Amino acid sequence: MANEITIRITGEAGQGTQTIGDALASVFFSAGYHVFSCQDFMSRIRGGNNFFQIRVSTHPVNSPRHKPDIIVCLDGPSAGIHKADLAADGILVVDRAKSGLEQLDGFMYDLPFNEIALRVARDAMYSNSIACGFIAGIAGVDFSAVTRALQGIFSRKSKEVIDNNINSARAGFELGLENPQREVFLLPRADNRSASGEAARLLDGSTAIALGAIKAGCKFYTAYPMSPSTNIMNIIAGRAKDEHIVVEQAEDEIAAINMAIGASFAGVRAMTSTSGGGFCLMTEGISLSGMTETPVVVVDAQRPGPATGFPTRTEQSDLDFVISAGHGEFSRVVYAPGSAEQAYYLTIRAFDIADKYQIPVVILTDQYLQDSTTDFSGFKPYGDAPGYSPVSKEEIPGGIPYKRYALTDSGISPRAIPSRIRDVVYVDSDEHTEEGHIAEDAAIRKQMVHKRLYKKMRGLL
To answer: Which one of 2, 94, 154, 163 has the fewest CB atoms closer than 10 angstroms to its CB?
Structure first.
């Protein structure tokens, strides 16, 4: 009996590999197992070859395995593409009739998805639910977990659609129970509850960043959709009404960064997100944030470049770019979380640091972190998170006349919000005096560069 198995579901775009993947992750999680899922997909709506991979274990797992034990092929080409990745004792599940294979190798198992789907639900689209049930059956998961998962995944569908999915999964489940190699993949009973008795939850990087932003008090979020960052905006938009957040889909990335800076100047915590190509367009805005000393948080969800590159694949190649992005020299902070849980805490930290030092803060992530899902035992209070401590805001000044860019030992000037003090707030993107008026004096320039770069960096380090 194995302590863990890895399953890969593969097919062309439009066949529901992500739907069945999400359903299976939910099935195994609700059955008490630890899971880690990731996906690989091409930049197209139909065709190509995508896969969703789930690692299921009786102990916590935080990364994928390269050799799946079970590969489910929803189309013909997938068998040839993925069979070399199969583990030594693994099986390749195919629909022989649909795939056009004349004969099956010893490691292949024929599962007639189309025929069963047409017989049970009168529609071949239910093939992925048959695969879901089959895997649950071969792994020894109770069918009630499958029912719960499918009801959750298809909760917005009609009762007929939900019933068809459950009935299709039941047909696959029974075939899984009858599989002659079942003993190889059968999992022992498990319980993924934490030591405190609290149930774990599933978390992906996009959700972690979105929840971190909400927890940090973000009240304005703007972005131009660009994979793999788009889902952060979708998640925040879904909670915007309850959390009183303004979410704006900008016309482009230049507008997005400038909107976020404007919202921050007006007194709310603001955030934007993009990928490398979009961040290129934001660099002048990053410099504007540095010069005006307006806090802003930016997510760069990296993808392979240059130019459009691989729009839906993962790569970590923007670090050199973001640490020096923007013309001129000024302080900024770049965070690169290594897990969804870190992404949550570092997003909160990003807002606190941006506010305290009045600088742009960039969160580096990528498609792998954004779209990978794992279980964890719940968020700790922010102050109790290892390595982090609360950051206090600078006090709003009460004196007049007000100097927005007052020279201080820390380099941090008292930041007033327009309309909240009796005096005028002058802010300028040109070099400026302490009051905020345009200046072309070399001595003032030297003081301001020293303030924005060296004094703030001393505190950050």
So the answer is: 163
Crossing angle of the two packed helices 276-292 and 253-265, in degrees rounded to 10: 30
Contact 185/2 with Cβ under 8 angstroms? yes
DSSP structure class, residue 39 = E
Quote the distance between the C-alpha of residue 202 and its chain's center: 12
Going by C-alpha positions, the residue among 64, 210, 130, 120 that lies closest to residue 221 is: 210
List beta partners, residue 72: 9, 93
- Spatial separation of the C-alpha atoms in residues 165 and 11, rounded to whole Å: 19
Per-residue pLDDT at 182: 83
Give the C-alpha separation, 60 to 366, whole Å. Answer: 22
State the pLDDT at residue 258: 97
According to DSSP, residue 427 is labeled -
Going by C-alpha positions, the residue among 384, 377, 58 that lies closest to residue 198 is 377
Omega before 77 within 30 of 0, i.e. cis: no
Q: What is the reported pLDDT for 196?
A: 45
- Residue 10 dihedral angles phi and psi, to the nearest 5°: -135, 145
The answer, yes or no, to whether the previous bond of 68 is cis (omega within 30 of 0) is: no
Q: Is 96 helix (H, G, I), strand (E, B) or coil?
A: helix
- Give Cα 243 to chain centroid, integer Å: 20
CA distance 174 to 269: 53
Cα separation, 286 vs 26, in Å, equals 40
pLDDT at 197: 47
Contact 456, 329 (CB under 8 A): no
DSSP 104-168: --TTEEE--HHHHHHHHHS-GGGHHHHHHHHHHHHHT--HHHHHHHHHHHTTTS-HHHHHHHHHH
Of 54, 59, 10, 15, give the one whose Cα is nearest residue 34. 59
Backbone torsions φ then ψ of 140, nearest 5 degrees: 85, 25
Output the pLDDT for position 194. 54
Sole residue written with tokens 């320039």: 445
Q: What are phi and psi of 37, to 5 degrees?
A: -125, 150
pTM (predicted TM-score)? 0.90
The H or E element that residue 302 is part of is strand 296-302
- Reported residue count of the chain is 461
pLDDT along the chain (461 residues), means of 10: 87 83 91 92 81 93 92 88 90 82 74 90 88 93 92 90 94 90 83 57 94 96 94 96 96 97 95 96 97 97 90 89 94 95 95 95 96 87 68 57 91 87 85 94 96 94 88
- Positions of E strands within 34-167: 34-40, 47-57, 70-73, 91-94, 108-110
Rounded Cα distance, 173 and 24, in Å? 12
Residues pairing with 108 in the sheet: 92
Please state, in angstroms and rounded to a whole number, the distance separating the CA atoms of residues 253 and 235: 19
